[in-house]
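Appendix B. Chain record.
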Amino acid sequence: MHLDLGMSQTPEANARKAQRGDQAALEEVIAQIQGKVYGLALRMLWHPEDAQDATQEILLRVVTHLVTFRGESTFFTWVYRIAANHLLRFRKSRLEEQGFTFEMFGKDLEEGLSDSSVHPDDSILFQEIRVGCTLGMLLCLDRPHRLAYILGEILEMDGNEASAILGVRPVTFRKRLERARAQIVDFMQARCGLANARNACRCRRRLKQAVERKRVDRQNLLFGHDPENARAFSKVLVNIRQLEETQRAVALFRSHPEYAVPNFTIAV
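Structure tokens predicted for this chain:
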């Protein structure tokens, strides 16, 4: 007799069951990891459709290589290693095809600032701009430095775990993280009004142009799925601006709402 005590198994326990052919455990494995994989892919590729394609491929690789998991690391570390390797080789995303650089991005931020009136319902649109803009900054880094920044700074992994995921020495990871962090902080301090109140750029001042250029579609938001987060951000921003300059950038990334994760089905 099977007793369902309402307690989910750890990813490692489900992985071991799935290795023995337990289909329900395999489905639970996918459910436990898909959010983390999608979050990494979205930060790496920017557009949800690119991230969905990459996540689907990564989950398939996890399933087909599950037999090789030996428990020498946590299951999430093992999954992240597969995801990182795949994302380093994944096709260029739609923004990467444009050859995105900090210089290009900076010039774009200088254009089209408007002081038009703000409607209370616009907070979700400001969230769309804020998340899209900060994710866009990540694309100005090359992929190895982008991954190092995401793992070490945004996801707060320690150097040993992150270097194991990336397959590099800890000193190599630290150097990549330092270079990536310096570039992001320098850019935000010079351009972003959220990180530095002296800068002219504000999400509300970019809204009019973003809507006109169809970068923000009120009927089809890419990132603005959390009204509560959007409404509360003004209070969060007060706390962020009280941080040291070097900490404000990553605090903005960590303030993102939970990404809306599609439900992935893997047929094997």
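Further analysis of this model is presented in Appendix C.
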